[in-house]
Specification:
This protein is an alpha/beta fold. Helix content is 38%, strand content 12%. The structure holds zinc ion.
């Protein structure tokens, strides 16, 4: 059986409440990695996500490449967003139990990679439970030890843009790819995944309710969605 934890990046957006409603209708709890400036723009929608059972994590305040700015600037990006999220949880009346973090672009911080991990450990960040993932590279690349949340499968649906040439069909090709260049195959082995989807209104414009289609296609094939747990 294929199992998966769903993560959704770049929250909040206009379509966030609709995504939340869909996930709740399917009994799925997602970890939503929030960008501070998007939360400020769509504050009520971020509140809605929290009040309807989603977990919000830190995806920096303004979504920079963390390897391309100084460690000091990068920490400010994280801490500014921590303040936004602390206030958001308080305003929502929801207790903030977990503090997961995801690097924008999955960039691990470049030459500061180790320093970031030390920082996450010392500052109470939460590691998403990943012991169910048995891909060898998840261990050999150190991902099983690191605190930030990477992913094992990316829908890559954010590439569906006017004139990009990347279509809905390409997402299904990825779903069925047995030998992907990046990450692990979704269905070749009975593994467990951390799935990556995005809350982008631009994608909704190209493929209305894309999240229903792509998450639904996995439900149709009996992927079991796990409730996120943390260390
Ligand atoms: Zn992102």
């Amino acid at each position: 059986m294929v199992t998966a934890v769903l993560t959704i990046d770049d929250v909040a957006s206009k379509n966030t409440p609709a995504i939340v409603d869909y996930l709740n209708s399917k009994g799925i709890t997602a970890v939503m990695f929030a960008v501070g400036q998007n939360v400020e723009k769509y504050y009520d929608n971020a509140i809605y996500a929290l009040q309807h059972g989603m977990i919000l994590g830190n995806h920096t305040y303004s979504h920079p490449f963390m390897s391309k700015i100084s460690f000091k600037e990068a920490k400010e990006e994280i801490e500014k967003n921590e303040s936004v999220l602390d206030k958001l949880y308080a305003d929502a009346g929801v207790e903030r139990k977990f503090r997961p973090f995801r690097f924008p672009y999955g960039d691990k911080g470049g030459e500061n990679r180790e320093a970031f991990q030390k920082y996450f450990k010392e500052n109470g960040f939460s590691k998403l439970k990943d012991t169910q993932i048995t891909f060898e590279w998840w261990k050999t690349e150190g991902l099983s030890e690191e605190i930030d949340t990477l992913w094992t499968f990316d829908f890559a649906e954010y590439n569906i843009r006017p004139e990009s040439g990347f279509t809905e069909e390409d997402v299904y090709k990825r779903i069925n790819d047995e030998y992907p260049i990046y990450g692990g195959s979704l269905f070749k082995d009975d593994n467990s995944h951390i799935l990556l989807l995005h809350a982008h209104d631009e994608t909704d414009e190209m493929v209305p309710e894309y999240y229903k289609k792509f998450v639904g296609s996995l439900l149709d094939r009996e992927v079991k969605f796990l409730t996120p747990e943390f260390f």
